[in-house]
Structures are given as structure tokens and as C-alpha cells.
Task: inverse folding
């Protein structure tokens, strides 16, 4: 297995699960964690027994809360270091977006900044009621770049709610009217991407 202390990989039958394990910092991600995530995804892609990949965060309070600001002095002190970090992040975004198997973001709690980008690149997103989505840029405006995952530029048009996510208050996930009373809500992507992945397109009865 390719697990590290901060990035956990689990295989349960046909399901591979990648867990961002930094709960004391709401699963904020360091450069080493992004590199470890690349190794986990590579292992899942090569394992024929893994048919679907779930991406999630540890601790129950956050999915991923973006970059670990406590690591900035070591990992993003120079322009070259920032570019190195951004390349590592884009590598994960692109890997998940083009992954040869279905990917699911299992979101509980905060999904912030880079975590929002991570969730967008998955094929499906499922979140608990009360999960919150936003880009937190006020605390580190001069050291963070607001950018869409590069893998999405060619495929999706800008959505009208992007300005709200970037500049407005947090978006809170609420129970859908057609979810049968379930405590979970399904967050759909802007447009279904048909591909060679072994997952059917959502049916008309899928909760929106």
C-alpha cells in the first residue's frame, strides 16, 4: 500500500478510498500530502481489483480545507516554490478528472479552497447536510492564487455561481426535496461528462 501518516489508502473489495488525514488542521494539505496522493491514485489506477475510488477527509469535520498555511514558510516562500506547489496540486486535479475509473468525493463538513477544486474534479460529490463550501482567500490573499483546475478549462463553461463561491458567504448544503428524507445530499456537477468509465449516466430520478 502507499499510505503515509497524513495520506491514507484503503482497499475494501472493489472500492479504493483515499483519505486526507490531517484532522487537527481540518485536513489542510501540505506539499508532501499532494505528492503522496499522486502515489495513491497511481496505485489505484493500476489495481484491476479497484473499480471505483472514493476521496474523503478524516475526522468528520472537514473534507479538505485547502493549503496548510502553517507550511507556507517552508513550502511557498519563493515564487519558484509556489509554482512547484501549484504543479503538484494541478497534477492531482488532472489525475482525478481523467482517472480511468469512477471517482466520488465523500464530503463531510468544510470543503474549502483547494478542497473545493478537488471535489469539482471528481465525477460525483455526496455531502452530509450542513457541509459548507467556499474559497477562503482573505487571510492569505497575497500568497494564494484563485484558479480553476486546469483540467476543467477545456470542458466546462464558467458557472454563474462561481462569483458567489469566490466572493460571497459560505454555501451550506441542505437536504434535497427529493432525497426521501435522507441525511445526505447529492451535489451534482454542472454537466455530466460521458467517458469510458464504468458508471452509467445519472437517471432522471437522481436527487438534484
Result:
Amino acid at each position: 500500500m502507499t499510505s503515509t501518516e497524513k495520506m491514507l489508502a484503503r482497499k475494501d473489495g472493489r472500492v479504493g478510498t483515499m483519505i486526507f488525514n490531517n484532522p487537527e488542521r481540518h485536513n489542510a494539505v501540505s506539499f508532501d500530502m499532494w505528492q503522496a496522493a499522486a502515489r495513491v491514485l497511481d496505485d489505484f489506477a493500476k489495481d484491476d481489483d479497484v473499480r471505483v475510488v472514493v476521496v474523503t477527509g478524516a475526522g468528520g469535520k472537514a473534507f479538505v480545507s485547502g493549503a496548510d498555511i502553517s507550511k507556507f514558510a517552508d513550502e511557498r516562500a519563493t515564487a519558484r516554490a509556489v509554482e512547484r506547489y501549484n504543479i503538484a496540486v494541478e497534477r492531482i486535479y488532472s489525475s482525478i478528472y481523467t482517472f480511468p475509473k469512477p471517482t466520488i468525493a465523500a464530503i463531510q463538513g468544510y470543503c474549502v479552497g483547494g478542497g473545493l477544486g478537488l471535489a469539482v474534479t471528481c465525477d460525483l460529490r455526496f455531502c452530509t447536510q450542513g457541509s459548507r463550501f467556499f474559497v477562503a482567500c482573505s487571510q492569505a490573499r497575497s500568497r494564494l492564487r484563485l484558479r480553476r483546475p486546469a483540467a476543467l478549462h477545456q470542458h466546462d463553461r464558467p458557472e454563474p455561481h462561481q462569483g458567489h463561491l469566490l466572493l460571497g458567504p459560505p454555501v451550506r448544503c441542505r437536504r434535497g426535496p427529493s432525497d426521501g428524507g435522507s441525511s445526505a445530499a447529492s451535489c451534482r456537477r454542472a454537466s455530466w461528462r460521458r467517458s469510458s468509465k464504468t458508471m452509467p449516466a445519472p437517471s432522471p430520478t437522481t436527487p438534484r
The helical segments are 31-46, 72-75, 79-97, 114-121, 162-167.
